[in-house]
Amino acid sequence: MKTKTRILIIPILSLLFFTFYSCRKDFEYNYSNTNLRFSKDTLFLDTIFNEVRSQTYMIRVYNTEDKDVLIRKIALEKNPSYYKINVDGKAGNEFYDVPIRSKDSLHIFVEIGVENEPNESIVEENLLFEKADGTNQHITLLSVAEDVEFFKPNTDEEAYIISENTTWNNSKPKLIFDELQVVNNAKLTIEEGTKIYFHRDSRLRIEEGSELEINGTKEKEVLFRGDRHDIRYDTLFGNWNQIFLDKNTKAKINYAKIQGGQYGLVAMKNANVEINNSKIFNHENIGILAFDAIITGENLVFNQCGESCFAGFGGNYEFSQSTFANYARFKFSSSSVYLANSYINSDDELIDSTIDASFGNCILYGRNREMFVTNFTDESRANYSFDTCLIRTEKTDNPNFINCIFNEDPLFKNTNMSSNLLRLLEESPAIGIGSVLIASEVPLDIEEKDRTIVPNLGAYQ
């Protein structure tokens, strides 16, 4: 008998529950004059380029009242507008009688795309929220638009081709899609202050026999980076692919800042590279990767390279007054310098080679105990030396280390990915201990300060 009674009670309670809810007035919305609360009063969107839309950003609008309300109108201030909005899944420029439940929130998605704006201009507009009494609240939308020169392959081609001598200046930033190739023994010259942006996975390729010349200055360095400007992208690696120097190419690079790629610079067999006064930061794999190349480098600053700041597989390398810092957290076995005398080429062939490398008045330091790594198949084909350097290593008895100091923190100002300030603090053990002879060959530091009397180690005096 008790069992039957319970069976009858369950459907009766269910009926009463739904009857009660059908009589409630929870879904009766009314206009309100109370201020809404926003997740942010000003929304800063990514710097964007003409004819390229931004990523999508989100704003939340909160109803803090104890009742359900209607927003009379949500609309962009201008018509037409460069901004686009989506309110709870619906796209448009104006929305009327938008409901928000009590103590609930509304999602608004915002993006922007511009056309024919001046070289650099601020695009500002308000997103308006009209209340019942006709007054408005607003969220300020703010972005910077840049007019860029596009380098994008035609739909039936794999790369944009430069086949004659070409000079880029800083009148407009350059935006590379997919791949840009310099071919036919042509020379690409990039003047001071020029900005080169790369779309996702894009790269600059200098083909065999061609040349690259970068003429940055201390005040106006040449910038290579991904095309996303949101501040978080400055601290992310792998936003673009690489600068690739094919075999038998030439490159002369001065005052370049290369950041945020999968690799910074890749140099193949007999590529002849002179790179000075340059910064190579935040790369997913290697800052400079070389296979039987010829590279001289002065006043270079590296940091945050997943595998190594510099990796040479065979070839001839000479670095002076350079800072190979590597505080990368995103890969376990990161190093400052990696040297080897064999490698697998693109045809899966094992190439045995000879490596000659010298480092003078340099700093090799970072997060791991061993920042100098070698992999030599034949020691007789490995010639290298470190003269008056600060090195973090467990191989302190290495005869190739001359007048070096070991495992003392150089005390950089700030090694974070967002800062990369590799100047030395006043109490640094790397101050004033450099070889005067080596310094005399590189008399000015990366900031053009004289270092000939009491030289520091690394790129900064």
Report on the structure:
This protein is mostly beta strands and 461 residues long. It folds into two domains: 30-146, Immunoglobulin-like (Sandwich), CATH 2.60.40.10; 149-441, Pectate Lyase C-like, CATH 2.160.20. It is built from two helices and 42 strands. The chain has a 26-stranded parallel sheet that branches. Strands 1, 3, 4, 6, 9, 11 and 12 form a seven-stranded mixed sheet that branches. The chain has a five-stranded antiparallel sheet with strand order 2-5-10-7-8, with no helix packed on it. The longest helix is centred in the first third of the chain and has 22 residues, at 2-23.
Radius of gyration using CA atoms only: 30 Å
> Class by helix and strand content?
mainly beta
> How many beta-strand elements?
42
Number of helices: 2
Q: Remind me, CATH topology of the largest domain?
A: Pectate Lyase C-like
Note poorly predicted spans: 1-10, 12-26
Question: Would you identify the CATH architecture of the largest domain?
Answer: 3 Solenoid
Average pLDDT for all residues: 90
Number of domains: 2
- Percentage of residues in helical conformation: under 10%
CATH class of the largest domain equals: Mainly Beta
Largest sheet: 26 strands, parallel
C-alpha geometry = elongated
